[in-house]
């Protein structure tokens, strides 16, 4: 799943699913997962649309109880979040260093990242589009607002050219240093935070949802929002009922 | 406490102390802190050098038990580390971004860092000395070793000059971008990981010791070792007996 | 601070304060704590009620900016919680085992508890009052509701007598076992979860607030609510402005 | 997998495997999993026993590099543990409450436990065998040693009888209380810590190994050692190469 100009998010592995969350929550009452769907009779577990359904069961009239999606919703809305720790996901991500700097503040995830101490980082850098650069132009956004001047397409163009040139020069110094025997761990000093790196990240579902809450928020930087959107898509594929609750 | 060319580590606040650790450990047996020093009689709590000391107490001859430094040593050596969570320290640190990138992998600390989304980062950058650049020259160190060429003073000199110039150019692009209304959060793309940032970090003593274990190690990058040494000095001031055990 | 019939909560130590939280948050913009109070002029830092205050300062008319309590409120309401990790508190608690069982599910706290493996637990047990036993009588509370019968004062009385007797018998078996050489770690098998134990608990302010959120809630068991109320009082003493925000 | 008289440990789900750990570790150098086995040529990736193997490859003579089990061993021995966070396991456990009390001190696991607030706990209690009761008899084990008397088979017999009777009485009071409308959350006060409960627990492999380190240790109580042994067996099935390293 492509993100920004050279980044991606890709699923390595997931575990658990929406049913598993119900099972874990039901530990407290010693029942398991009963089934999704409209509802089941609390005596005979028969559903209203079952072909064997009559007006009554061995215990008198059917008493249809809510389907397990109601328990899932109850857990989520009342913030009983520990069952959501019984599922999770490992992903691989390529993103600029400044995005990883924000990402790594999530201390409940596990990380393994490419290291410029061990290998030269490939010469891949993030170049924001003009559209992105103009995103908040004209607004009085405290965080993203201009420092002094006023953003316009001409200025965006100038910045892109200067950034491109500066990336090029940084790479020249970097590769010259490596050729001259400067240790990798010091040659990297000049690498800009716009350079791409790569990592694997693992977390349980509860913590991924917390990541999404903070990083899909409008207050988050646009770039990490794009990554959060990609993570959200993976989650909605693997845990569709939980994701539905998250979104609503 | 100065570290590298423009960095520092400074104590904001600490809590607990070596005695507090003993007290916490003694919760399990419902005793408190008894005292450092050679030893005390287990019946009358008198010490051998007490002026009232005779050969015996109300319970017969004195039975001198070990001083509490022995319990501290026992806890530490047998890895009963939870009592060491009952003390801690908050520090303020100025360090290059590449050092913070390593530091922030310690997920048991709390961080508040200066943010280039909100203010322009000051133009302060890390310049390694020739001595530092030559540190592992000639060695066959897998991590730090040269990529192709062979490190020598001439090459170190070239690198310092190029790095200085590249820092200068990055700053030119950065400040021009800010002047032209490029959002701070994007102008920063060109900032090199050698630029200094600043943060506060809080952790309990157990986790600070874990930080020292990993970052004072010879396998850690020399720069973060310098910071770890500074942190170690703060710890040895505030928790001298625990630090003694850590070092030995 | 007495809680239930034989329990208590007491402050061992705290660190940080409301000002320290502001300081930590201001790391991002490189300013420190500016002061509480109505507001200050953003140019000269003078307050409206300052005796030197005139209509203007060196920069023209005063522009009064909000006092730092507004930043504190902003942080809290927008869930920027990391600055609240820069303060904390260690307490000592005596509570029944079933309360500790719930308490220890808070995995961000540090614990040191009395251990029945090492010393015999004192014969102190929790006896709920009649008022407490009747608390939800008549209600259709799913959790607390009666199993079969209907709660009334006569039944409460019977339960108290039976519980008292059962506590007594458990203690008889326990002390006989200890006298007969049964290892402490096995003699304890018969100890009821109503027996008191003791611990120290440490957490940062953010995590204490999370504890309060879950345990002062009406859905929490009444007994742990009493402990949470006691913790809340300690927090309101040490961090009055933060606690005010928590409550509102 | 049966543990003690009425307990069990059973695998719910695992994720990752020994290969996945290598892949995660190789993020730092941008290579993937290369293969177990004796070794491979670092140029052509051919193995010594490959039928196409000749003395040389396109790059000159073969240079056989170590198989990935050597990297796994290197990571484990040098405590590079983050790659071991990229695998994990969810289990279901039935164990006495006093075992869960120790287990839940592992704050890096996720738990969902049966709750006596919501359902009556089944009348299943732990009865130690005579052999178990005599385990440390005669020894001077500080923790497990007798309080006053001397353990012998006669005393073990007496304890078993008294414990059995006390369990019976506790259950009588419990079920009477439930019948009389005492809230479940209070009726449970009399339940002994020898009673069985049930939970699901999830952790990554690094944290499961840490659990094993502490709980397979001779200093751990014999009962939790039995559970740790069962967990170890599940781990050795799912992560055989990692477990081999743990054991050695």
Give the key terms.
homotetramer, 248 residues, alpha+beta, two-stranded antiparallel ribbon, 9 strands
Q: What would you say this structure looks like, in words?
A:
Four copies of one chain form a homotetramer. Chain A has helices at 18-25, 68-77, 97-103, 130-133, 153-179, 184-187, 205-215, 222-238, 240-247, and strands spanning 2-3, 7-15, 39-41, 56-57, 60-61, 64-66, 88-96, 110-113, 196-204. In chain A, a hairpin with a 3-residue loop joins strand 1 and strand 2 (7-15). The longest helix of chain A has 27 residues, at 153-179. Chain A contains nine helices and nine strands. A five-stranded antiparallel β-sheet of chain A has the order 1-2-7-9-8. A two-stranded antiparallel ribbon of chain A has the order 3-6. Chain A has a two-stranded antiparallel ribbon with strand order 4-5. Chain A is of the alpha+beta class and 248 residues long. Mean pLDDT of chain A is 90; it is low at 140-147. In chain A, helix 2 (68-77) packs across helix 9 (240-247). The two termini of chain A are 24 Å apart. At the A-B interface, helix 3, helix 5 and helix 6 of A face helix 3, helix 5 and helix 6 of B.
Q: For the largest interface in this structure, which chains are involved and how many residues does each contribute?
A: A-B, 64 and 64 residues
For the sheet with most strands of chain A, the description reads: 5 strands, antiparallel
Order of helices and strands of chain A: EEHEEEEHEHEHHHEHHH
Segments of chain A where pLDDT lies below 50 for 5+ residues? 140-147
Number of strands of chain A: 9
Largest beta sheet of chain A: what is the strand line-up?
A: 1-2-7-9-8
Residues in helix, % of chain A: 25-40%
């Amino acid at each position: 799943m492509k993100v920004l100009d050279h980044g991606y998010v890709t699923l390595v592995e997931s575990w658990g699913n929406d049913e598993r969350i119900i099972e874990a929550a039901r530990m407290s009452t010693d029942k398991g997962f009963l089934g999704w769907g409209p509802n089941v009779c609390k005596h005979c577990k028969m559903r209203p649309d079952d072909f064997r359904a009559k007006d009554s069961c061995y215990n008198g009239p059917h008493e249809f109880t809510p389907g397990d999606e109601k328990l899932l919703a109850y857990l989520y809305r009342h913030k009983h979040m520990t069952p959501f720790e019984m599922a999770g996901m490992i992903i691989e991500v390529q993103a600029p260093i400044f995005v990883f700097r924000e990402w790594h503040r999530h201390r409940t995830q596990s990380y393994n990242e490419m290291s410029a101490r061990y290998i030269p980082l490939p010469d891949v850098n993030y170049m924001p589009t003009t559209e992105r650069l103009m995103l908040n132009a004209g607004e009085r956004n405290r965080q993203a607002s201009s420092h002094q001047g006023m953003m316009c397409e001409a200025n965006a163009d100038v910045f892109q050219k200067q950034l491109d040139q500066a990336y090029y020069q940084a790479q020249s110094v970097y590769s010259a240093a490596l050729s001259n025997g400067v240790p990798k761990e010091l040659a990297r000093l000049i690498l800009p935070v716009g350079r791409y790196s790569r990592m694997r990240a693992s977390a349980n579902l509860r913590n991924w949802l917390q990541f999404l809450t903070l990083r899909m928020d409008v207050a988050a930087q646009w770039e990490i929002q794009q990554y959060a959107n990609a993570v959200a898509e993976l989650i909605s594929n693997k845990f569709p009922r939980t994701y539905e609750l998250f979104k609503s």
